[in-house]
Amino acid sequence: STTLWLDDFGSGNAGIHDIRDYHFDYVKIDKDFFWLLMQKDSGRPLMDALVTFLSRNHHNVIIEGVESEAHKAWLQGMEWFAIQGHYWKEVSIEQLVQEDITA
């Protein structure tokens, strides 16, 4: 079976028309869109509604651009599948392999 991803949702290159016309297993919300919504008073309710809509319509939602505790806290309680960003330290493939071997 094929797994489809929609990247950069909210960037202007990918949006509502794409999820209307196709089913994507994963939808990744664009970092700049996330940051823009964080700056607006109505941003959190809008992000929550968007993530809820996507999740309840069988899309796994990934939010990119999480770079601080404030970013992580702002997303608390939303129905996302994963969050991604420089909040977590970078790990090389070699470190992952070593961790798996020693675990």
Structural commentary:
The structure is a single chain. The protein is built from five helices and four strands, in the order E-H-E-H-H-E-H-E-H. The longest helix has 14 residues. The mean pLDDT is about 90. With about 100 residues, it is of the alpha/beta class. The radius of gyration is 15 Å and the shape is globular. It has one domain: Alpha-Beta Barrel (TIM Barrel), CATH 3.20.20. Helices cover about 45% and strands about 15% of the residues. A four-stranded parallel sheet has the order 1-2-3-4. It comes from Klebsiella michiganensis. GO terms for molecular function: cyclic-guanylate-specific phosphodiesterase activity. InterPro entries: Cyclic-di-GMP_PDE-like, EAL_dom, EAL_sf.
Which key terms come to mind for this protein?
EAL_dom, 5 helices, four-stranded parallel β-sheet, TIM Barrel, 103 residues, alpha/beta, EAL_sf, cyclic-guanylate-specific phosphodiesterase activity
In short:
This protein has 103 residues and is α/β, with parallel strands linked by helices. The protein has one domain: EAL domain (TIM Barrel), CATH 3.20.20. The protein has helices at residues 16-21, 31-38, 43-56, 69-74, 93-102; strands at residues 5-9, 26-29, 60-64, 82-84.
Please state the structural category: alpha/beta
Summarize the biggest pleated sheet: 4 strands, parallel
* The first-level CATH class name: Alpha Beta
Oligomer: single chain
* Count of DSSP-assigned helices: 5
Strand percentage:
15-25%
Ranges with pLDDT <50 over ≥5 residues?
Answer: none
Q: What is the general shape?
A: globular
What is the terminal separation in angstroms? Answer: 31 Å
Average pLDDT figure: 91
CATH topology: TIM Barrel
- Taken together, the total number of domains comes to 1
| Strands, total number | 4
What's the CATH H-level homologous superfamily? EAL domain
As laid out across the biggest beta sheet, the strand order is: 1-2-3-4
